[in-house]
């Protein structure tokens, strides 16, 4: 999402999915763009357990960059192909409600400020947009029952929305080839694992991969058919994973997380 060519390819893929009769919903991030503006404003850029330490001042910047810059840009790129994309944040029509998310580092709780966990999703607005043939583009910002606005990690927001929509797939794009088995010592990608296998690996995961895989686990445990971590540096990785492949069910790249018992799979 910081490379013009890749951004255009992503928008094309989403439009192609729509044309193929699927109902894509985009939840975007923007960590690098937020960090760049914080730097310019001389505000601290700090992450704990893969989540940005978010003061009220930083929250204003997060919301401005996500809803005012990254989301607008994606909506614009998709809409080059027709009147398709409509942007919203989790705040709109209470699409997502958040609660302060605690973080633990080495077993100790750390204060990461206004970081939220999605505790409730009202998918009505997203469903209504899908019904009208639109492509919802959702920024991961949500209000709490306390009226406070929270910064939600994009992967966790996507997982919560996928769960509430009963999505067939959660697809997460990142800047590596997938979940590496032995990061940072090796770049051998784990191509497929079950929810139970992922649960075992989770405590050993660090930085941005932790919320990403927590999101994948949550999604497949809560009814999403499968979750995929793909290399977003490869143009059209999304379309290949969703429509490509000999069986029309992905091209086998990246990491796929499947529920513990896949529907239709016969136990042997
Ligand atoms: N096991 C792992 N496999 C792959 N990447 C990992 C792993 N553990 C940590 N990482 C780091 O996580 C990063 C992806 O997370 P993040 O930067 O938050 O991604 P995004 O911006 O795509 O959400 C990778 O660039 C890599 O530095
Ligand atoms: C709580 C938290 O960390 N929120 C993220 C929201 C954006 C995001 O998730 O962006 P990426 O997908 O590019 O990482 C942040 O402030 O960076």
Automatic annotation (TrEMBL):
InterPro entries hit by this protein: AceGlu_kinase-like_sf, AcgluKinase_fam, ArgB, Asp/Glu/Uridylate_kinase, Glu/AcGlu_kinase
Keyword terms: Amino-acid biosynthesis, Arginine biosynthesis, ATP-binding, Cytoplasm, Kinase, Nucleotide-binding, Transferase
Segments for region (Disordered): 244-268
Site feature Transition state stabilizer, where: 212
Domain Aspartate/glutamate/uridylate kinase: 8-231
Pathway info: Amino-acid biosynthesis; L-arginine biosynthesis; N(2)-acetyl-L-ornithine from L-glutamate: step 2/4
Known role: Catalyzes the ATP-dependent phosphorylation of N-acetyl-L-glutamate.
Protein name (Swiss-Prot/TrEMBL): Acetylglutamate kinase
Originating species: Streptomyces subrutilus
Organism lineage: Bacteria, Bacillati, Actinomycetota, Actinomycetes, Kitasatosporales
Gene giving rise to this polypeptide: argB
């Amino acid at each position: 999402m910081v490379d013009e060519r890749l951004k255009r390819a992503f928008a094309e893929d989403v439009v192609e999915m729509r044309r193929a009769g699927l109902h894509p919903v985009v939840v975007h991030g923007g960590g690098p763009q937020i960090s760049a503006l914080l730097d310019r404003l001389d505000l601290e850029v700090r992450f704990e357990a893969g989540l940005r330490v978010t003061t009220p001042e930083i929250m204003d910047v997060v919301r401005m960059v996500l809803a005012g810059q990254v989301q607008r840009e994606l909506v614009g790129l998709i809409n080059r192909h027709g009147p398709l994309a409509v942007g919203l944040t989790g705040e709109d029509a209470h699409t997502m409600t958040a609660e302060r998310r605690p973080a633990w580092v080495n077993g100790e709780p750390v204060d990461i400020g206004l970081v939220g966990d999605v505790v409730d999703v009202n998918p009505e607005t997203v469903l209504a947009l899908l019904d009208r043939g639109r492509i919802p583009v959702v920024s991961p910002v949500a209000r709490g029952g306390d009226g406070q606005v929270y910064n939600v990690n994009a992967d966790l927001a996507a997982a919560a929305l996928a769960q509430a929509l009963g999505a067939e797939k959660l697809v997460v794009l990142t800047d590596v080839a997938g979940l590496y088995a032995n990061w940072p010592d090796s770049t051998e990608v784990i191509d497929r694992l079950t929810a139970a296998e992922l649960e075992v690996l989770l405590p050993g995961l660090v930085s941005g991969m932790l919320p990403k895989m927590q999101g994948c686990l949550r999604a497949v445990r809560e009814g999403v058919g499968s979750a995929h971590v793909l290399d977003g540096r490869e143009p059209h990785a999304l379309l290949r994973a969703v429509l490509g492949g000999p069986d029309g069910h992905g091209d086998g790249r990246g990491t796929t997380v499947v529920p513990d018992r896949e529907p239709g799979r016969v136990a042997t």
